[in-house]
UniProtKB/TrEMBL annotation:
Phylogenetic lineage: Bacteria, Bacillati, Actinomycetota, Actinomycetes, Micrococcales
Name the UniProt record assigns to this protein: Ca2+-transporting ATPase
GO terms for MF: ATP binding; ATP hydrolysis activity; P-type sodium:potassium-exchanging transporter activity
TM regions (residue ranges): 73-106, 257-277, 283-309, 705-727, 733-752, 773-793, 805-825, 837-859, 871-888
Annotated catalysed reactions: ATP + H2O = ADP + phosphate + H(+)
Pfam families: Cation_ATPase, Cation_ATPase_C, Cation_ATPase_N, E1-E2_ATPase, Hydrolase_3
Keywords: ATP-binding, Membrane, Nucleotide-binding, Translocase, Transmembrane, Transmembrane helix
Annotated ranges, domain Cation-transporting P-type ATPase N-terminal: 16-90
Stated family: Belongs to the cation transport ATPase (P-type) (TC 3.A.3) family. Type IIA subfamily.
Membrane topology designation: Multi-pass membrane protein
One of the record's GO cellular component terms: plasma membrane
Compartments where found: Cell membrane
Domain of life: Bacteria
One BP annotation, GO: proton transmembrane transport
Amino acid sequence: MTIEAQHTTSEEHGVEWWALAPDDVIAQAKTEGSRGLAPAEAEKRLAEVGPNALQSAPPPSVWRIALSQVLELMTLMLIAVTIVSLLIGQVTTAIIVAILVLFNVITGTQQEVKARRSVDALAKLQTPKARVVRDGTLLQIDATGLVPGDIVELESGDLVPADGRILRSSNLETQESSLTGESLPIPKGPAENTADTALADRTSMVFQNTSVTRGTARIAVVETGMRTQMGRIASLLTQVGDKKSPLQLELDGLTKVLGIIAWSAVLVIVLIGFARGQSLDELLFLATAVAISAIPTGLPVFVQSLLAWGASRLAKERAIVTSLNDVETLGATSAICSDKTGTLTLNKMTVRTAWFGGNTYRVTGEGYSFEGQVLGTTDEPLDAPTLGLAISLPNDATVSADGEVVGDPTEAALVVLAARLGIDADEARKDYPRLAEVPFDSDYKFMATLQRIPVRGEQRLVLIVKGAPDVVLGRCTTMLSETREIVPVASDSATAELERMSATGLRTLAFAARFLDDADEGRVAADPMSWVADLVLIGIVGIVDPLRPEAKAAVEVAHRAGIDVRMITGDHAVTAGAIGAELGLGTGAVSGADLKEMSDEELSRRLPDLHVFGRVTPDDKLRLVGLLQAKGAIVAMTGDAVNDAAAIKQANIGVAMGSGSEVTKQAAKLVLTDDNFATLVHAVELGRIVYSKITAYLRFQMTQLLSLIMLFLAASAFSIAEGVALFPAQVLFINFFVALFAVIAIAADANPPGIMNHPPRDPKIGVVNPVSLVEWLVYGAVIFLIALVPLLWGPDEPSPSEPTASMTMAYVVLGLATVLSALLMRRTPESGLLPPIAAVAKILVWPVALIVASTEVGILQRMLGTVSLTGWQWLACIGLTLVLLVVVEGDKWFRRRRVANRTRGRRVATAPVTR
């Protein structure tokens, strides 16, 4: 699917339910508003449309994962070597290689299965229930049994079980952030919308997996299962195929190149031997030795093990990867597209500022914690219990001491504000019960309650009003001054404060009151709505979903690391822009409507200057991710809502929150169990560390392979031991047993310093590039030359059929060079001799001991074809090995000096001219 097609949307609904009147909905759905469906009809429809559940692709079986490991090119080459070894009678070699193949396959399979099981553990869902009217009787059934035409009852706290058209409602509000990204509850009602109403503005509809935060409703189910809005988003995931990670692609290419090099070397050496007149058995023996030398037998094991180590570290840091290769992809991330609600923010509505008596106050504290104060310009806490009562009494939410909320999130924020003013809302509502009330309604946008409360030491009958500032201000004639006197309302000051709050992305609410005589109680109770006039303005509060405490610092780290961070949200662009400015994301905020007006070419051109996207749809998110990828970015997309799922799957590294929807977690490659954006940035750092260790290993491994290929080619060209520079068992012993400890040392090396102070690696510059190739060839040539010396000028004549001191010395030099390479090449261009070095040195003692044992222990001598060496021969081997140290450290010193000179030159060029 093209990027252009991704954002060209059209409604696939057969019926635009939101645009129909309730009676027309009943007719279209072929049901009855009062009695619902008959049980038999419901069963029939269930058989036709299927269960009300979202479908997901089954995970691959263990055998399928294992087969994919077997079909890796490296594994297939090793299997070929095993078969040839058996054919020529090299049983020991065949057994060792076969064990290596089995080890590679088992290790890779276990790690993949382990990663997948970690994700499966997150998917423990309970089947939601639904109260449905069947044949006039209210029943509670599993939501999976709902069908189009069912009549369902909803109340505060319910999870909406299917897409439904509201037939009637009372003060209904739903939280739709999981679908649209809108962080605030949406007022709903039965009044029809126009046909072209956007999804986020369809107030006559409720949608599956959103929650009811206030009121009650009766709905007609119109869509179930994969036909719901949630299901449609889930179906987008099938349009997005799985992609290989950058490292997978690079290693696949490297494996092919190595295969060509290995088998070309085998062909050349066999042709030389054939021209020399060697027998078929000798040629096959020689070919086996060369193939073993040229195939990086440890590559799959090391990469899998290091990725598994990274996955394990990520899990400890509360980040779970679905596939091991995703660990490395994290390190290549160059762009992060983050959802706002619950990802960068706490998803806990909080009062940030308040305007009382003409003065602006700052509110401290985070989320639903009661800790915090209301502070004036001199940081003196506001002592205003009457204000606390006015805020807490027209309110139906409750907040427990541990932050658990029941009711509307905005009202919960007001409960917390009252606590910071010294008022316990629950106790206040018990002490001052409502004598009358006007419930909130989206038509008139306010709520009013009548109570008898203490005002300046005496009980007064007070009608307290809370609502939209424009509505409340329009009903106010006076206001409370700083000294709590009633004065004419300062409309200009109030309006200016509203504009200031709105400009910073705050949602505003106004409070007012009407002080009444006791004699008015009966009349007010009979018709409270008519008394909501001639009000005294108490104040205005500004509410926001605050940033996570770690989010701003995490964005700073990402920027320092050269990672572009964008916020993509369902909130309005003004609100999103204010949050983006607080985060320090950068300039440029745009709405989803503006996005739709832009062509792909225009949007792609403007992307560097756009960092905040508000009121966007799932298709917009998918389009943005695709355009960034088209520009060469490695994109991480974060989110916790179903509306993020398609973009999360499209991204190179999709990131879901542990508390998010199941569809999103199934689409993601990384799940943050703590819902913390900062954890993602730390995961990127860990991905970079893993990649640096992989490149260090490849530097080590390729140097070894190239030196062996050169050695066998030289042996064939100069007729040294009929081309058999080393026995196959000797090569295997070095490549597997000795190199194993070398690899462990590389993996255990301390993390590179300042790894997040550098820009992301360019994915176009892979692990195989001109610089790395020259490095591999030079280092490999040095090892080849120092190993060739004993074969040319050793104490005896090398032989392909019996052990000799010369061949043993070449084997020892290669073994010691392997150990030294691990020490020197574990980092670049930094010296490999600088601390911390103790931990690595302790590991590398073991392979040195193995090399000594393999030349002195009888059983190992017979297995490997070695002989004991004299003291002088050992000194000669050590001296030759030290040549490698001089060349490698000298090369790195030269490169460090060159970089320092360039940096010094740039500083001089930009220094100010002084006289």
